[in-house]
Batch of 3 targets.
Target 1
Amino acid sequence: MTELSISTIAGVFDAIVAGPPEGRPVLLLHGFPQTGLVWQRQIAALAAYGYRVVAPDQRGYSPGARPQRPEDYRMDLLVDDVVAITEELGWAAFDLVGHDWGGAVAWWTAHAHPGRVRTLTVVSTPHPGALATALRTDQDQRERSHYMIDWRDTPATEERMLARDAQELRELYAGKVPQDSAEAYVRHLSQPGALTAALNWYRAGRPGGEIGVIEVPTLYVWSTEDSAFGPAAAQGSRQWTNGPYRFETLQGVSHWVPEEAPETLSRLLLEHLRTHSGYGTATRTPLIDSPKR
């Protein structure tokens, strides 16, 4: 894995990249409060099978793409970032993977650009339509999502999360994220303006427009101990897809799936990509049957 800077009209995005340049392209989107580092185990697994994998630090997490206003973190702009990054990489089509907020961006990107997204994999985050329904009808989901309202307070939330050597920020990882990774996230988000930028994702307001059904092959991975997303929204995501769909439930796993269950997630992701290796019309690199050594 190496580091890469990707220059776009929105700014410069830092990224981790691995795999042969000619490999089938996969973009991985992280969530809060993490960075592209969250995908390091999946990056290694995919690169070993010949994929070209890029995991950017998204808007606000990359110092070179860190606007100050909450309205600069609207969903349409986050989707535009995905398009701009992949265009800069020269990817006409790509497989898209997202976790947490990265999962939300992935759902919206697959809806807005089905001709470019070859396959979709979302970890933890339900389809936005299913989540909206659950928030209206399911008390459990309303209680799980109440933190989003609390975190919109500024600068109180930043001050509270970073107080006492970032104790509250560290507690969010619930001991499920490897300590070295958690420390890296805390260092990154302790930089001036970084945590405010990350929290601006919650302060940007509701996405403009409406999201419909997803047409591309979709893998959705949800875990039973996820504190943010309950079963109603997770199970309701199926009705918001109109293409091949696979729903996997990980028993006893928390919200931090990529790091708590890395081998399982990597296996599911590789199976999904292999199953739909022929989907779409863009030029593709065939999946190699064994890892590259």
Target 2
Amino acid sequence: MGVRIRDADQLKVKEDVFDDITLLSLYKLVHKKWLSVIGGSISTGKEANVFYGERDDVAVAIKIYRIRTANFTTMSSYIVGDRRFSHVKKAKKELIFAWTKKEFSNLVRAREAGIAVPEPLVWNRNILIMTFMGVGEIPFPQLRNAEMDDPASVYARILSDIDILYNKADLVHADLSEFNILYGDQPYLIDMGQSVTRDHPRALPFLMRDIRNINRFFSNRCDVQSDVEIFNAVTGLNTAKP
């Protein structure tokens, strides 16, 4: 394939990840010089695996959505109602390809709005390549495992990100929690495949869920605002109850 593969034995056993479609996509990305090294696993999520990689000695993250084992029903609930993907067929393979494109698009919008997220570089079918968030080959820890000198300032930064994401990028993360935020010199939002536009029919419930998750995590680490107070400040609405 013209690419140096580390931990080759590890890749061979992950048959649910490296199926024929994925291998063809990897071949195309290597052929177009997007990858020169495929390394070991960084993380395994509900729908995707992330691997360390390099492009001409520059670290990248290779996110591969699993075609065989991804949760089709869960993914459908975030695609349906998103006007950007109303044309997508409901076959599983096409849905996963659309999901990959959706995450790429959402990361672009978030970065353009000034949110700290990985820079999306390219996508092909079920593979997304983006900048690697870490030092050396070690990824930044998830927020739940991070040591924070000043939790209150991190909390304030994340609330600001939620606001900017909604009001400038027209997006709701829709799965924001201590699992989907990395912490290095600052918090970085990740895993934006499920993020929806503000006009999505479930955007507001998703937003409230994000706020509740963040407040739950920080509630024993610093003073937090009420869920409703944050929700109203972000949306400009005046709801009286969560």
Target 3
Amino acid sequence: MYFTECRTPIIGTLTVASDGKDICGCWFDNDRHFGYGIADEMERRDDLAVLQQARDWLDRYFAGERPDPRELPLADRGTAFQKLVRSAMLEIPYGETVTYGDIAKSLEARTGRQQSPRAIGGAVGHNIYCVIVPCHRVVGSDGSLTGFGGGIDRKIALLEFEGAMKPSFKRPKKGTALTGIPNSARMGHGAAYAFSDLTPDDMHEILEAHDSSFAQAFVVADTASRAFWRPGTSNPAPPQERCRYFATAEDATAAGFHALKEQAE
């Protein structure tokens, strides 16, 4: 795996990765998901043609042009759901914004299946092609500027650069979107976080750590056993593909799950 760096005028340095053929990622320097999904060590190759192509695209973007992300050979990485959300983000025009709910509705129309805005938020938050795939153009239904791995200041800077920042948009007062805090730094401090501050991968890491400080932030349900519980129990974390996350026990019950025995007693 190879990488190059692109220094930008408004959001610091971006790191772009490639397998030599396709672009495999683009991250902010403090991105909490930096290198997500890449197991190999990365070797710097500024002369690699595909990485030069990515740097040229980013230079054009920050020069005020509107290059099409589809010009770039983006690797087809991620889960099926993440790729579905990525395709929806690629449809968001330059200088415009949509909500997580808007994406959920568009995917429902495309797939015929109900989609959760919260799950959309998790997929947006794990965007591996920052700036290129415009996750910065997705906002909360109430105008909250959440769900950004590079920190809220960068999200605001990109929206202002594109002329898409609105007076109604609200800066969150807490959460990892503020500064791109790695998940490990949150451990033991769950009382400071709400359900909307966490992505599905964040929550799965918390479950694996049995961190009871997040007991009031969310519940997890296992689609195999149909049981749900709060973080901190001795119950092992199921594989991510079997997990569903809810803000409250009432939401999990309404979805057809039952409380784990040790929490029901």
